Amino acid sequence: MAAEFSSIESVLDDKQAGKLVHIRGWVHRKRDQKELIFLVIRDSTDLIQAVIKKDSKAWKDAEKITIESSCELSGKIKKEERAPTGYELQVDDLKIIGLAERFPITKDLSEEFLRDVRHLWLRSRKLTQVLRVRSEVFRAIHDFYHKEGFTEYQSPIFTTQACEGGSTLFEVKGFDRKVYLSQSWQLHAEAGIFALEKIYTVAPMFRAEKSRTTRHLAEAWLAESEAAWLDFDGLLKQEEELIIYVVQHVLKTCKKEFKELSRDTKDLESLKAPFARLKYADALKKLGKKWGYDLTDKDERELVAQLGKPIFLTHFPRDMKAFYMKPDPKEPKTVLGADLLAPGIGEISGGSERIVDEKELQKSLKIFKLKEEDYGWYMDLRKFGSVPHSGMGLGIERLVMWLTGMPHIMDVVSFPRTLYRLSP
Ligand code: AMO
Predict the structure, then answer these.
(1) Which of 163, 164, 401, 408 to mutate to test ligand 1, by most ligand atoms within 8 A of the CB atom?
(2) For ligand 1, what atom is nearest to the CA of residue 392?
(3) pLDDT digit string (tens) for 149-158?
(4) Are residues 166 and 312 in the same domain?
(5) 3: pLDDT strictly greater than 70
(6) Domain count, the chain
(7) Which of 110, 141, 196, 265 is surrounded by the most beta carbons within 10 Å?
(8) Above 80 in pLDDT, residue 64?
(9) Is the pLDDT of residue 2 over 70?
(10) How far is CA 101 from CA 25, 26, 67, 105, 113, in A?
(11) Is-contact 387 229, C-beta < 8 A?
């Protein structure tokens, strides 16, 4: 068999018709007839129908080959309207590379079973498309922050402080003192801005979420940014620009993926700044609820549907949010924090202007019943040239859910990790 292989995508072309090509991939489907065997072959780029005639030397192997076997094929390309991707490979030569056992995934299997065999289900057309969109999202986030002059910066994964509340901390066994997996890079990022001013990361975070929902994982990825001299309004503007940049990027680079996922992208195409801004108090009026009410994900989606665009939900009661958020000087019962709510999902990011003043931070730690001695070094940042600063964390899985239209967060990650699922 020839060494020069073409991708399937590249041979689906009128210019290739009549030409001899060599491809390799896996058997996606197989249909036997008396005189013909039809294989649908997939590689990472696309699918093609391959036809093997009874009188060809490939017939014996074609008879033997099973679903998900890997193989190399040579043959001529023919335009064929009836084939799934419009072209057909008329096979002269077929070489089985890895003959597959009976593939356990067939039609109409439960979600639970598909999660048990995730290592095999990863090959599905749906997951392949989603993972490609996800990859473009990562690329766009890096491009955006580099374009804006941010430095990529990493915080440690082992931490001794809670950033987002003690109830979801993952304790790590094996040390003689309590250590946790990071819930967010934020606290150590705040130290970084005094050197680098504008920083970002794309990193995993860990939360021991006990609830079973369609938008929580125990291990998820965040795009996070922190910037010196940036106020709350500046932060929201930057976040808006980031989201629009990512959306434009995937619209350009993932047309094929969206088509295969049947994702109608009209809503993404018409997305523009500014997003809506809604104070918590005004959201309560719309929902007919009282101060202190904690919005559900259903409430969030309802608000977005009402306003017809993403919403920055701002000015939450101080004790409802995190200890580091700066109270609004004009409405000190509330904080300069914002959750970004996306259509069909609800919250996809959280951000805030941070407390800069040492006394204010001490007061906040008390309100949240956190021990000052646990936050000694973090307090230091308020003693040595403190500056106004703001930052945010964007949940990449939730963003990918929105972009791809997937209904469950487990659909947008290769191997989901939750309280109930830690393998394969
Ligand atoms: P927050 O706790 O709001 O903020 O988290 C930021 C974003 O992360 C996503 N998210 C999750 N995604 C999947 N599974 C989870 N269990 C999960 N928990 C949160 C959400 C959320 O909006 N340090 C702050 C950010 C900042 O202010 O800089 C933080 O972590 O999309």
Answers:
(1) 164
(2) 28
(3) 999 999 999 9
(4) yes
(5) no
(6) 2
(7) 141
(8) yes
(9) no
(10) 16, 13, 8, 11, 18
(11) yes
Q: What is the pLDDT of residues 328-346, one digit of tens each?
A: 999 999 999 999 999 999 9
Residue 417 in any domain: the answer is no
Position in ligand 1 atom list of the atom nearest CA 222:
8
Predicted structure pTM score: 0.97
The residue whose C-alpha atom lies closest to atom 28 belonging to ligand 1 is 392
Of the three residues 98, 131, 152, the one that is the final residue of a domain is 98
Of ligand 1's atoms, which has the minimum distance to the CA of residue 349?
22
Which residues approach ligand 1 with their CB closer than 6 A?
A: 163-164, 184, 186, 207, 209, 216-217, 220, 222, 224, 347-352, 391-393, 395, 397-398
Residue 82 belongs to domain spanning: 8-98
Residue 120 located in a structural domain? yes
Crossing angle of helices 396-404/125-147, nearest 10°?
Answer: 120
CATH number at residue 47: 2.40.50.140
CB 43 within 8 A of CB 8: yes
Listed residues 45, 70, 98: the one ending a domain: 98
Q: Quick one: pLDDT at residue 326?
A: 98
How many residues can be counted in the chain? Answer: 424
Q: How far is the CA of 394 from the centre of ligand 1 (A)?
A: 6
DSSP-assigned states of every residue in 180-206: EE-S-SHHHHHHHHHHHSEEEEEEEEE
Write out the two tokens for 237.
């503007």
Give residue 189 CA to ligand 1 midpoint distance, Å.
Answer: 15
Q: Of ligand 1's atoms, which has the minimum distance to the CA of residue 393?
A: 25
Pairing of strands 70-79, 20-32: antiparallel
Span 180-197, average pLDDT: 97
> Which atom belonging to ligand 1 lies closest to the Cα atom of 226?
28
